[in-house]
């Protein structure tokens, strides 16, 4: 099994985010996670990639419980988990080449990684991955010179470059136009299939989920409403899943104000 | 092309790196600063003895009473000095600000005579603030004798030039619509100022003046080192007599004063926002200035002040000595000054980065509190004070200056660096941690790119400051132009001193131009990239 949740609960502060989640993904399996915003899709993925520690139950990844690993063991386990985030976590002033190469930091020695900051050692490999997300010409660009959609594709390129055994993706195409979104989802699914990796992707668009994933998991209010093969997911279920959805809250991060330059020449 | 992607940034990076190295390496012989010497067993032993001598702080009643009086004198000199500076700066700002120019507000043609007058006044301001206040203090001590009067005069002139420039700039940065309307309606310069600009600009003017008052207190304390009274003079005596207990008491009192002033200035800023706060603030400022003069006046009367002798003293500086031997000396001194500033800033950059990591809370709360305390200590003690301590530790000469600048600047930069670390988004670093990157690599890939440019900008800004500082550290024996000036004044070689002061002015002016140019380039480059 690549990913198993056994009666997992997650509480952050006083609020219960996830409750009694049990699911299992076999090696090489692909599943889509759908549900209204606030259902806990992102949190479920963050439990799977070891950002959150479960408050109840156990999460095991690639056959190991990350919270019972020794540090070294955990690190090599983490190197096999790749995550595409909804808002790509890229430093604004970092160059694309380093942002993508960072995907393999879990498998590299510290010294080699630091030297690569001065002189990228696998620019060709990074360029090849960038080509697969149509950003071959942005290899040397800085992340803040890219559009939102381009940044999201850099985040995807990082995971492709990492080539993990478990791929997690949190609404990876929310900033892309429909045609590009379709293509990107397909590309991630193809990549996972070609390498025999497991893929769990949360999606806003039910159509995309149904078109590309054989297994659909519906999440509502922190619980699994259904976990079914695509053929058995019918319109009624979808309606029940999104019934009573409130308008999505604005969950964008506040813009960071650059600290001002101190006034006064000398003191 | 795809198979051989060449990094376009590689060559520039190599060139910058080589340039940095080429600048940094010669600073070691130029300043005689030997980092290894600091960790030498003998030096460590001397230092340990020196630090151990600081404990316990002196606490006998006679000394404490003396410290108390000196502290009040320091505060009073700073307050009176700033009051004088405002008396100098306000008219200068009023006369020179472009915000009140009829031709800037309406379509009228500028009057050539008035413009020439303004240029002249601007030149005067450049001269006033171009020489650091400690140099003014040194000169006034020679002219009117020991005591707090030189401190007040020095602050009045140096800060007067500064306030004049900044007040004028603040007025220029205000929205012009109202001023334009008033001007079109035939209002004169005072009316446009009073009704069109002052109401909007007042908060900023006051808050800048309060900030300057804070600076004045530090400066006034330090001026004691050249004999201008107050707590600095006591400190100078105690240091020269190697009385560690007294030194630590004085340092503690000094830090208390600095913290106290920061509190007062925060309070006054809050007052400014309340309804009647402005009037309260103005009233207490006037009272404070009067009380300060009243406290200082008896000593001034005793010392006697003679305008004629001041003029005679000033005339002895002329003409400045321009002999080739002296010019070569000045060149050497200037080079030494630059080397001190450069090496000191580079060391401080490394120290600040190392301290900023714990200070931003990356290694837990206790480490954070400890690092913050250390940063505040480093930053709270002015570079000149550090220099006088460093002279004891590593001897007279530029090496002490390097050490002083490195220590003080580590504190300043460390705090700024820690702030940028705390403000940077944490997501990139965390994402790398959970894909298995180690702590150091995740930091270097996830956070450093975010803060690096800001760190460089701060270091550049601070480096510029440090060149000015390095020029005067020699007054307490830490090398560079300052040491030459101190020597020349001690030997009454006034024409030589005049040349040295001119050299300082020139250096400061060149620096201002260079940094303006650099900043414009930087802005253009970043504006281009975005």
Describe this structure in words.
The complex is a heterodimer of chains A (267) and B (530). Chain A is of the alpha/beta class. Chain A has 2 domains: 1-80 and 165-248, P-loop containing nucleotide triphosphate hydrolases (Rossmann fold), CATH 3.40.50.300; 89-163, no CATH class. In chain A, 33% of the residues lie in helices and 22% in strands. Chain A is built from 9 helices and 9 strands. Chain A has helices spanning 41-48, 71-78, 96-101, 110-118, 123-132, 148-162, 178-195, 206-212, 235-242; strands spanning 3-12, 15-25, 30-34, 56-61, 81-84, 166-170, 198-202, 215-220, 223-229. In chain A, strands 5-6-7-3-8-9 form a 6-stranded mixed β-sheet, with helices on both faces. In chain A, a hairpin with a 2-residue loop joins strand 1 and strand 2 (15-25). In chain A, helix 5 (123-132) crosses helix 6. Mean pLDDT of chain A is 88; it is low at 247-267. Chain B is mostly helical and 530 residues long. Chain B folds into 2 domains: 53-315, MetI-like fold (Orthogonal Bundle), CATH 1.10.3720; 321-530, MetI-like (MetI-like fold), CATH 1.10.3720.10. Helix content of chain B is 81%, strand content 0%. Chain B has helices spanning 10-24, 27-31, 35-38, 41-52, 61-96, 102-105, 112-130, 133-144, 148-172, 177-184, 189-223, 230-240, 244-273, 277-303, 307-315, 324-359, 365-380, 383-394, 398-423, 427-433, 439-446, 448-473, 480-490, 494-529. The longest helix of chain B is centred in the first third of the chain and has 36 residues, at 61-96. Chain B is globular. The two termini of chain B are 26 Å apart. The mean pLDDT of chain B is 86. The chains are: A alpha/beta (267), B mainly alpha (530). At the A-B interface, helix 2, strand 5, helix 4 and helix 5 of A face helix 11, helix 19, helix 20, helix 21 and helix 22 of B. Chain B: One of its GO terms (biological process) is transmembrane transport. Chain B: Residues 71-265, 334-515 form the ABC transmembrane type-1 domain. Chain B: This is Phosphonate ABC transporter, inner membrane subunit.
